[in-house]
Amino acid sequence: MSFWHIDDVIGNSAVIEQAESQAWSYADLSRSSSDLKRQLSFQIKSLGFVFCRNTFGALVGYLAGLQSGHTITLLDASMHDRLREQLIKEYRPEWLWLPKDSSLPAHYRIQGDAFGYMLMLRNESSRPEAPEIHPDLALLLSTSGTTGSPKMVRLSYHNLQANTESIATYLEIASSERPITTLPMQYSYGLSVINSHLLHHATLLMTEANLVSKSFWDFFREHGATSLAGVPYVYQMLHRLNFERMCKSLPTLRTMTQAGGRLDEKLQHYFADIAYANQLRFFTMYGQTEATARISYVPYDKIKEGIGSIGIPIPGGTLEIDKESGELVYSGPNVMMGYASNRADLAKEDELKGRLLTGDIARKGENGFYYIVGRKKRFIKVLGLRINLDEVERLAEQTNGEACYCMGDDTNLVIVIRNETSRQKIKTMLTEVYHLHPSVFRIAVLEDIPRLTTGKVDYHALYERVRE
């Protein structure tokens, strides 16, 4: 049974939402999504934009879209109007599921409202001719957490279900679970938390409170959250909050998962030690939106053995390393159909056939775990020397004791640090390890690192800030 066809489950709440201080049963969720589904009665397969918040209303729109057989796009509800209009122009959606406090887009009329959202249908007079949508296409997600780019990942119903089942299997998700939302719903990692727990009729604790706020932890404790999911930034925040002390007051916490980028090894050790001391399960994971969400994981009982690695393939998937390029290649039923940049692309067939070139350079360890050593596109050539920016970040991090961020082009390497006292250490490392002359690199100090809504570092914005 697909996770989006909601059963009337007796016992568990489906959602407890902090903003509304309200719990909804699986019967409520089933009835609400069915009511909205009936309003999406287009004669042909349509496209809808669902503007997401971590709320019951957004979840209803997502599930109704899947149940109706239409294609949906999940987008950030806080997206700037100009970016929203750009995407509407490129993709020409027939309907929108939009928070009621949003500005109204042109050419759409309000059809109905519920749970803080409004359904808007495109006016017949302004509905342009649009190519047919591929029958297997279920969902469009932005690539790498971007918000305004028209480039989307095309995911099928089979992609969604396969990855959901795989994640639920290796995490051993049961109906007793109560995950709390720490990531945006429109982000593939955040969405995978929702999907995998709906599959087993667990209870979603939905909040938009900031992780460092008292209200987040009050909600966590009041409703007995059992798991936390986070990108590296989330775990950096937990470390600053002295999580080793905090977790003593979180008796219901059982599982922590981390993905969305490499967590520095110092923090991997820190949280692995906490997990062992408190009988928690800590999973580090690797994935891409292009693989629906997840590609590999380190089993929690081997977390210390797997520090620095991306672990083993998820159930149903395989990994191999291309002998010529060293690129990591993933194969599995969760590999996307391909990319889209406009409405016409939604008619395309499955272009990848279950095989994804990840863009990551990797090696396989003697323990059977895979290790990422760099990105194909994260290389620059300075004075004829080919430099792996990810490798520099890791070495700088080991030297500095905290995260550093590397960017640049073939004329200049830029390293951003957060503390002036680290400058000389990094400079010495670059000259001794890479034999770089100070004229071809620059070390910038910036305390406030710009981030995307997913919590990942916004390298483009960061480079603009420190560019001379």
UniProtKB/TrEMBL annotation:
Organism name: Marinicrinis lubricantis
Signal peptide from the UniProt entry: none
Name the record gives this protein: AMP-binding protein
Family stated for the protein in its record: Belongs to the ATP-dependent AMP-binding enzyme family.
A Pfam family per the record: AMP-binding
InterPro entries assigned to the protein according to its UniProt record, in alphabetical order: AMP-dep_synth/lig_dom (IPR000873), ANL_N_sf (IPR042099)
Positions of the AMP-dependent synthetase/ligase domain: 14-339
Keyword tags: Ligase
